[in-house]
Amino acid sequence: MELIKYIKGIFSGVWSCMVGMKVTVSYLLRPWKIVTQQYPENRKKL
After folding, report:
1. How far is CA 9 from the centre of its chain?
2. Are 33 and 27 in contact (CB under 8 A)?
3. How far apart are CA 29 and CA 13, in angstroms?
4. What backbone torsions phi and psi does residue 32 show, to the nearest 5 degrees?
5. Residue 27, Cα to own-chain centre: how many angstroms?
6. Cα dihedral angle (15, 19, 24, 25), rounded to 10 degrees?
7. What is the per-residue pLDDT across 1-26, written as a single tens digit (0 to 9) for each?
8. What is the pTM of this model?
9. DSSP state of 44
10. Which tops the pLDDT comparison, 38 or 13?
11. Taking CA 12 as the corner, what is the angle to CA 9 and CA 13, rounded to the nearest 5 degrees?
């Protein structure tokens, strides 16, 4: 039983890492889609 929990934990960690990398790679491939705003330049809009 402990071995199964251990293996599930490893797969869960790898899966969450892959999901995070998917988001990162998508922003690297589409830099025009980045939603971060630069505060001093758009102060009047906010």
Report:
1. 19
2. yes
3. 24
4. -75, -10
5. 9
6. 90
7. 899 999 999 999 999 999 999 988 98
8. 0.56
9. T
10. 13
11. 90
